[in-house]
Amino acid sequence: MAMKMDLNVTIEQMETGEQDAALTALQSFNKEMNQCFTFGKEEEQERECLGELVMGFLNRELQPSCLLACLETVRILSRDKNCLSPFITHSAMTTLARYAGIAVAGAASSECCQQEEGQSEGGEAAEVSNEVTKEVSPSENADQEVITEALKSICNILLHNLRGQVVAADLQLIKGVAERLKQSHDPTWKHEVRFFDLRLTFLMTAVTVETRAQLAQELHGIRLLANQLDATLGVSWPDTLETARAGFEGVPPEDVPLLSREQTELAMESLKILFNITFDTSRRKVDEEEAAEYRHLGAIMRHCLMSQADGEERTEEFHSHTVNLLGNLPLPCLDVLLVPKVQQGSIEYMGVNMDAVNMLMDFMEKRLDRGNKLRETLLPSLNLLTESARIHRETRKFLRSKVLPPLRDVVNRPEVGDTLRNKLVRLMTHIDTDVKDCAAEFLFVLCKESVSRFIKYTGYGNAAGLLAARGLLRGGRDSGIYSEDEDSETEEYREAKNHINPITGVVEEEQPNPMEGMTEEQKEYEAMKLVSMFDKLSRNNLIQPMQLSMDGKMREVTPDDLENLVKNPVFQPEGPHNSESEDEA
User: Fold this and answer.
1) pLDDT band, residue 129 (cuts 50/70/90)
2) Across 447-548, where does the E strand assignment appear?
3) How far are the Cα atoms of 127, 406, 447, 482 from residue 486, in angstroms, in the given order?
4) For 516-544, how does the pLDDT look when each residue is reduced to its tens digit (9 = 90+)?
5) Where are the beta strands (DSSP E) in 489-530?
6) What is the DSSP pairing of strand 500-501 with strand 352-353?
7) Strand extents, DSSP E, 365-488
8) SS3 for 477?
9) CA distance 574 to 548
10) If phi over 0 gives left and psi between -120 and 50 gives alpha, with beta otherwise, what is residue 247?
11) Closest CA to 337 of 367, 358, 365
12) If we measure between CA atoms, which residue out of 158, 260, 146, 140 comes closest to residue 211?
């Protein structure tokens, strides 16, 4: 009740129209509510009233201190998603955009504002020019704190309100923000302005498909945000598609200073925006010009991946956004990860610099070991490694040497142990289908999609899910295009090969034959008995018997099939099976 009385007092002071009284009241309100992010329903009407009064003040000429206090109040009130009506009109959004220094589409703004003003009771219509409002430069408005407060308010509105998102799109705020983003190399803009420019851009591209397309195509968003990253991270280009930190060219990565908190904050916002506007590019064909642009961006992504932020947690978050974006790039453009020359301290494989690929693998294993929300945390890096290995021979061979080295352990099951292979095989029976399929796909690609090699490293029981989905239960090789190389066998594997149980993938103790000592009639009786039991369970819809068809996929066993098995219990495959093929299990 006390807070409600205070709010009524604030409203009374605002209704006087005097700037000094309003300033005192608003400063008191702002100080008390600055850390308030949740609001009760009982004060909604009062907060809406205060919001309308504040927006009325913002349409007047104000003293700098009163202006800032009004914008601070809007920022606080805009946190309440139930009381945003004073701020989501075209007129209110235009006013906030003006104080944020963002250009708006003047014609649309004027028409909508006049309609809104015409619907209000006796309100004086504010004059709005048909021209596009120009963005404010630091020299025109030295008080960047005003710009920051207005940007924060617009961000809150877009975060909470659909109508506000529509109005922002109508006013073409993305164009105004993009114009200021072009000034990324201008040191006069403070960190807060640059950050909330990017945050606002992220929100607009996150909530509106049309805005994403507009930024990507009309406003050349990929080049714009790549330049933003260049400026933020201080990237230099010693060679085409090869990056370094400006002033630290030739310095080993471990000796390059850590990125500051401000640098990583700006970089992560840029990465999130780029993710939004490249969401559909990984699977579509791109022309030469687009490919060059994506390769340039990929080189910056590699730079991000090899950079370290201030603190392990912040570094991991930074790398996570980088990996997410790399997964959006057209697959042929991922070769930029292998472009840098091999230098002292680099990880070399087949004459290629594998630093970035090794970093991706370490990142993936960290997420795998953590085990939390694997779909969100693990799959982006695992998918990225899978696709890189599929199209780049050197990447696949390097990853295979790390994940599937020559097999020596033939005693423990493939899913038992602490190696990366063991961890990934365990995922092949994960409860989450996406996680299970992604892990299996990665290992299958490392095996060049060879069924026999896949079963050798994972066991038939673990591999059956992927093989059934691909129609490869009869063996063979999928349609991937891979170079020819031999699967080297260790002495340990060669000696135990004939004793390995293909289902489990390990050597097991020889089990007694349960049919030993039985006559042929007894064996036939047990077989018929088993078929009859399956038939009964099937007719009661408790199970669905399946059998392997000629195309390598499973199909339902019909009652006629069971009848044939009863009459002829000796199993007859549907067609010939060449067990001597080295590509079959």
Assistant:
1) very low
2) 500-501, 506-507, 546-548
3) 78, 11, 11, 12
4) 888 888 888 888 888 888 888 878 888 87
5) 500-501, 506-507
6) unpaired
7) none
8) strand
9) 8
10) left
11) 358
12) 158
